[in-house]
Amino acid sequence: MSLPQLHPADSTDPVASIYRETADEVLSAFGSSRSGLTTGAADERRIRSGSNAIVALKKESTLRRYLRQFADWMIVLLLASAAITGFLGDLGTAGVLVALVGFNTLIGFVQENRAEKTMEALERLVDPTTQVYRDGVLTEIESRALVPGDVVRLTEGASVPADVRLVDTTAFSTNDFALTGESDPTRKFARPIPHEVPLADRHNLAFAGTSVATGEALGLVTATGMHTELGRIARLSQSAPQTRSPLQVETGKIAKYVTYGVAVVSLVVLVIAVQSELPLREAMLFAVGFACALIPQGLPAEVNTALAAAAGTLARQNALVKKLSSVETLGATHVICTDKTGTLTKNEMTVSELVVGGADYRVTGIGYAPLGVFEPEPRSGAATDRLRAFLTAGVFANNARLVAPTGDDDWRILGDPTEGALLVAAGKAGIDLEALRAGSPEISELPFDSTRKLMTSIRRGPDGAVTAYSKGAPESLLARATLIDDGSSVRSLTDADRSALLARHTEKASRALRNLVFATRVLTEADAVSGDITVIERDLTVLGLVSMQDPIRDAVPAAMTTVLAAGVKVNIVTGDFSLTAEAIAHQAGLSGDDGLSIVTGAELAEMPDAEVLRHALGGGTVFSRVAPEDKVRIVDLVKASGHIVAVTGDGINDAPALRHANIGVAMGASGTDVAKQAAEIVLLDDSFATLVNAIAEGRTIYRNITKGVLSCLTSNIAEFVVNTASLALASLFGVPLALNVLQILAIDLLGEIFPIAALGKDPAEGETMKDPPRDSRARILNGRSIVDVVWCGSLIGAFAMVNYLAFFTRNGIDPFSQAVPAVPLAQAMSITYVTIMVCQLVSIIQRRSVHGFFTRYQFTNASFWYAIALALTIMLVIVYVPLVAGFFGTSGLGVLDWFFVLCTAVVFLGIREGGAALRRRRASVPVLRA
């Protein structure tokens, strides 16, 4: 016999052969016994094995999370500009630039930190202690202190603290959903399994991260900490590479190119300014001002505030955003790989159909509340008695408990959800569960196992008779039955009866219904006390068939229709069985390029990458019985093809795929802490419909950010035009500069930033989810948008320079041949500043809608108009409040000056609206081809 070492760190399967050996052989190999280890032996092993703890998924420290906000080209350039102006003695400008950097970095940090704190509140701690035999005595110790070779006692409701080989079991089952994806509890046993089976079928093992559903057991600890199956998945999760979102890539490129351009142009401007006989200090300040004119200082803040606004909207819609860029990534999603249980379904097993005494019944009501009726009502008293006897069998062959709500709690189940659903059905019929059980106490139980596929409870009735109540898989129970209650009498069970019931079972299973057959047998005292399965579970009388389902969430079909119409491909990736997953897919309305296809885990293992990618990109594929490595493979193939993939999950087994995906989406209500830590977005209501809403929000926010980026760059082009013209006039004719650094910053930071940020709250315009996902290679700054920004900004800059020079003409001043007094110069600079500001606000309003300035869409988003009012107020304060005007170098304007500014804005609007109308007309005219 060859068994693994205490910690086979070099093995990919820590329990490769343990399940194939007897319990005594495994105990011997680990140097242990049923009475456990001695304290001394346990202490010695702990030195070698270390603590029984999972190394947490890597988390950024608070400081690192804040410093990461500085990893932006524009932030670096702003800091450099602040350093230069501070060095040259312009502390006011330097202070403004530093404050701007602080504002930009704080927005992203605060949102991400808030999400992290919310996550910490959502996380649930595992049981800190466990029962273990030490020195032959059952004691309670910290779970972290467990070592391989310890013998632990596992009871109903407890968490499994490590990977264990079961030694003794009593009606024992575990909830393995978090690890394997199976929604139903798994019955466990202690006997060896002679042949090789996959991990999910090793039913004599229990794994760390799962919990006990029913019964109790003794288990030998075979692996702890990072050497458990949970630890292996944690290592796989942490191997995921860190990727940047499409928006991060896009804004990074914009910032990079702008930074390079600003550095080169500013250096050239510095040389020209020096050659124009400006003093070095003034030349350097002018170069910094030129740089500030080109830097879209408000861009990081605009993007972050837009994303933060979207994150707030999603939070109110039950989607918690942990990372701001995740909002936009969702909007670019091409492929969704969704889990089934809990995401598409409610994860609440519910009895929906019965076949009793030859009659069919439908049971209304969903969830665990015993509220519902049986349709149609039984036709006679005998039919009512028969239905009650059938439901009674489901109550007796049952180890679950139905718990009534207390306070704000809802009805809940303790134990197996399938057995719990049977109790709920009995409650709907008005059966008093506790009184029924008390009146017929259990003598003994024959627990479920995977060979028999049924369980039996032996009970003594009020009249003293002993009856066996059995429930199990239709094939298994019908093979042990010889009688049937057909509604008129109890008669012999024929082959035709068996075939008919099995046909009903197959038909119902194809609709994602889980089916069980109930049966009874009156026993003699000798049979009852014998405990012989072959004697007790024979000559059974079939009472009928019960069908249960994990109902699909109400909003899923409509959400699936919406997301498919938006061109997003959806696949189901689950550890559950293919027949159940396929039925849920049909109910959800899932479809792909080739309809609906099923790929099992075994088929996936043999499938070449190209075929797997074809299924994933085509959508409509149900990948069933898959392992964590399979999910990662699917996700990595989609990412490598250049498509954006979102993955949903709630189990420990989902964590690696969540980390590898472009966007990981975890379930907040039913999800494990590991899954929530691995994801960027957490759905607090576990609903697929919430995910679809988030995708729509992501698409909207990208459009809003696009409007903001283009608006932001427009003013930079205008400032560039003004500064270039000013430099030319200053170097050739000695004309004073039309703008100073603080006025440029006032435009970018105090004027346009609020309206541009408010664009982030703009609602969708048109049918956002009618368009296909955008190409991840598409750019905000493309040929068309660059031409539009340059044209629009140049217009504003030209109009500003015209107003600047016209002011001197109106006031009889010749700036080309005489020195300009301080007050008229401040007024001329003011009119330049105001012209740019007013035209920029008009440009932002006009750019809001694809239909231009004059559209009903302009009446949406009240906060935008508040921001416009705020921007105008700030502009007037800068011009007219003496203390503020002195700081910015401005001075009050007269009525005639304002007339010229408003006329300029009207002409600018007319040119923009005319151009937009011409483009729309060209787009509506069909192109004639030869």
UniProtKB/TrEMBL annotation:
InterPro entries linked: ATPase_P-typ_cation-transptr_C, ATPase_P-typ_cation-transptr_N, ATPase_P-typ_cyto_dom_N, ATPase_P-typ_P_site, ATPase_P-typ_TM_dom_sf, ATPase_P-typ_transduc_dom_A_sf, ATPase_P-type_domA, Cation_transp_ATPase_P-type
Gene3D superfamilies: Calcium-transporting ATPase, cytoplasmic domain N, Calcium-transporting ATPase, cytoplasmic transduction domain A, Calcium-transporting ATPase, transmembrane domain, HAD superfamily/HAD-like
GO molecular function, one term: ATP hydrolysis activity
Compartmental location: Cell membrane
Membrane topology label: Multi-pass membrane protein
Primary location: membrane
Protein name (database record): Cation-transporting P-type ATPase
SMART domains hit by this protein: Cation_ATPase_N
TM regions (residue ranges): 70-88, 94-110, 254-274, 720-742, 786-807, 819-843, 864-885, 891-911
Residue intervals of the Cation-transporting P-type ATPase N-terminal domain: 17-90
Keywords: ATP-binding, Cell membrane, Magnesium, Membrane, Nucleotide-binding, Phosphoprotein, Translocase, Transmembrane, Transmembrane helix
Lineage: Bacteria, Bacillati, Actinomycetota, Actinomycetes, Micrococcales
